[in-house]
Amino acid sequence: MADSINAAVQVNNGTTSNNGGEMIHPPPIISSYNDKIRPILDAVDSLRRLKVIALPTIVVVGDQSSGKSSVLGSLAGISLPRGQNIYTRVPLIMRLQNHSDPLPELLLEYQKKSVKIMEENQISNAIDKATVEIAGNNKGISNVPLTLVVKKKGVPNLTMIDLPGITRVAIGDQPENIYEQITDMIMEHIKPEESIILTVLAASVDFATCESTCMSRRVDINGQRTLVVVTKSDLSPDGSLEKVTSNDVNIGLGYICVRNRIKDETYEEARIQEEKLFETHPLLSNIDKSMVGVPVLASRLVEIQSMIISKCLPDIAKKINEKLNASVLELNKLPRVLSGIADAMTAFMQIVGSLKETFQTIMIHGEFEYLDDKEMNCNAPLVEMLDEFSKELHKSIIFRGNFLVEEIQVLKEANGMRLPSFLTHSVFMCLLKRKLNNI
């Protein structure tokens, strides 16, 4: 694996000039072991759709306008929605697959729909339309994901999740708690130990105090699963070298500086200009070449992805077997064939009996065995439910000083007709039904 990784880095770091200084076409940003990792990544992606266990994931986080979409677009060689008033509002799962066919295949999957995109210039519109279907016409967010499958020649085999950019102030018709919604969503995705945090920072910001950096440090104190991509290096070159070498915020996986595509540049032109920038700029040229460029970023991500998957595979297999065994046990408890009413009644009585035993265990012994250890013991939820029921009961029936006044009045009116201090059956039932209806 180490030899493959080193070979991949050498391939991806290839030069763009020949011995005579003449510029040539840059190499594709793929790894030499793409074919080896693709089947494993497909299996992981299939499991991710089932949502049964936590899986290795590269999660992309950053402030709004930090350049996240531009970085992802550079890796995929496609144009994603971007601009001053365009924001990511739902999780975008990007599945990049190296494709031998020169014609790319593009697919957008969401809410059990599958939309084939015929032209690359239609990607932004397709994503915008799907986002509106999921999150509405306003600028609110949703945790329902979109999946963009990009099968294209020369792209790295990667799966990444791009999350909404962090913002503190609600804009336009965004909900007032938009910051809390976004941070909750990000924390949900970066908290699992299997997640790799790809933090995108603009070169102009203070890395130590940036919101996305602070969030990653809350779940990854030692920075062992955090990689930082520094964008817009060409716009803020001063101090970039010191920021990425001093590592004041303890980023374990390191820094990579990139130059995003500008305006109508093709991705090939952008890569050529990026290499020129880090080769010739008086300040940026001092940054080590293993820390600059989109090809280096692609190689590093594929390397990290393969390492985290290989590390997590035994645990993934164990969790799948546990889930499978638990499901089989539950399945075996169900009757195989119900041929008639008698069989259905027998099955029903078995379920009722099992439920009775469960409640006895809860009420008498205060115990309940869950298959999932993360679930709470049943005592606390049961007490909470009873407390809520008690509150609702007291809201619907307000006991004041007139307790039993109505009943006493009826007793007085009925006195002499029946036995003293006893109501007739019909009157008693009427009052009882009234109380029960209130409850």
From TrEMBL:
Keywords: GTP-binding, Nucleotide-binding. One of its GO terms (cellular component) is membrane. Residues 1-23 are annotated as: Disordered. GO terms for molecular function: GTP binding; GTPase activity; microtubule binding. It holds the Pfam family Dynamin_N. The keyword Nucleotide-binding applies. Residues 52-314 form the Dynamin-type G domain. The keyword Disulfide bond does not apply. InterPro entries: Dynamin, Dynamin_GTPase, Dynamin_N, Dynamin_stalk, G_DYNAMIN_dom, P-loop_NTPase. Residues 7-20 have a biased composition (Polar residues). This is Dynamin-type G domain-containing protein.
